[in-house]
């Protein structure tokens, strides 16, 4: 019913504002550039868009939890016109990712994001162009019965 959301506050550093929204509302606010959401949280919000209610999400997550999970570490690839956060299953994801952050430098290429998109078939990545346009590309099946994020293009 009409319960009030729990109180929330910000610290003016990492969190600078608080607002209660549905996942879809938050993604739409991001698309219209009214708010900024870091790529990992944006990815998860795009997955949550598949659920119309908390009940649906609870049912899905309790059934899906029996499948197990996978450790993830996004790997940044610097391209000529932006950067790509590569995720497991992407053709460009390294076979031996640096889970501790000890290895440097970041992966770099002189190729453009468009070239890297065309040269590869399996995509599981967040693309961040120089103009801060963000797109999530995932054309592979999620492991462990997870749901894929809804398609996101912040220039929509």
Automatic annotation (TrEMBL):
UniProt keyword annotation of Membrane present: no
InterPro entries: NUDT19
Superkingdom of this protein's organism: Eukaryota
Gene Ontology CC annotation, any one: mitochondrion
Keyword Magnesium applies: yes
The protein's required cofactors: Mn(2+); Mg(2+)
Key words of the record: Hydrolase, Magnesium, Manganese, Metal-binding
Gene Ontology molecular function, alphabetical: hydrolase activity, acting on acid anhydrides, in phosphorus-containing anhydrides; metal ion binding
Segments passing through the bilayer: none
Family to which this protein belongs: Belongs to the Nudix hydrolase family.
Protein name: Nucleoside diphosphate-linked moiety X motif 19
Species of origin: Micrurus lemniscatus lemniscatus
């Amino acid at each position: 019913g009409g319960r009030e959301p729990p109180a929330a506050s910000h610290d003016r550093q990492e969190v600078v504002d608080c607002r209660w929204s549905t996942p879809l509302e938050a993604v739409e606010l991001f698309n219209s550039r009214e708010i900024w959401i870091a790529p990992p949280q944006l990815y998860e919000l795009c997955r949550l868009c598949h659920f119309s209610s908390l009940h649906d999400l609870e049912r899905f997550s309790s059934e899906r939890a029996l499948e197990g999970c996978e450790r993830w570490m996004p790997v940044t690839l610097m391209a000529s016109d932006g950067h790509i956060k590569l995720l497991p299953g992407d053709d460009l994801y390294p076979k031996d990712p640096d889970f501790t952050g000890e290895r440097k430098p970041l992966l770099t290429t002189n190729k453009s994001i468009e070239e890297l998109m065309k040269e590869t078939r399996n995509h599981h990545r967040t693309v961040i162009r120089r103009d801060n346009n963000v797109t999530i590309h995932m054309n592979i099946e999620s492991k462990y019965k997870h749901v894929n994020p809804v398609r996101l293009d912040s220039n929509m």
